Amino acid sequence: MRLGLGSYAYRWNIGIKDQVPVHPMSPFDVLDAAEALGLDLVQYADNMPLEALSAPDLEQLAAQAREKGITLEVGTQCFNAEQVAQYIDICKVISSRILRVALDAADAEIPVAELAEQLRPLVADAKAAGIRIAIENHFNYPSPRMVELLEAVNDPALGVCLDVANSICAGEWPEETIALLAPYTINLHLKDYVIDPDPYGVGFRICGVPLGTGRADIPWILDQLAHCDADMSVIVEHWLPLGASLEEAMAQEQPWLDRTVAAARDFIKGR
What we know:
By secondary structure, this protein is an alpha/beta fold. It has a single domain (2-268), classed as Alpha-Beta Barrel (TIM Barrel). It contains ten helices and ten strands. α3 (55-68) links the parallel β2 and β3 (71-75). The model has no long low-confidence stretch (mean pLDDT 95).
């Protein structure tokens, strides 16, 4: 397994929705951060859309990654045939062998047969370029429906980007999600979480913690993926809460990430 940095590990330093720092991290900054962490893989997700880069900047990003010996992967959010086609072209420029896409509630409304029909030519184009499309189990796309979609397309160039916690939002416990999606997994998003009861007893809250300090059974998860390619990307992320201010969250991201990367190295050692 090959450890890599996901751009969502710098959610607050990059900025998201209405929480945007004065000087947001750039794709080049994330590349430098990966190098400083001793990682040789970066996956840019939809919080850092590479489509926003000019063609010369995209070429420069690819060149700097090559100079640093860092492999790049790329991802986008909701499924859209035109956008996926655009990202296949981006993959070619930066030599990405993985294109991560995410399906969510709106995509779940599309009949599986229709979605499969839209995916087939894109998967064929990706496959011809040596790229595999990895669909992430996002918050509101049920895993059984994803399995139905994968089997309808039935192509090894289409697989799963398995996130170990996202599908709690879809009413699935992680063990259920992982059992369903592990056979199709080609990319892994690794994070940890806790479930804290409300102090007044009115429910509970699920929130992120540094890897290895929460409820996620990381060794068990990795055991379920023992059949995957030996060099499969394991992308570290986290759910660091916003807290009192954006500045506070920004200051906490690097310490959280340092702990998470150290723990991830221990977990994947020898795998």
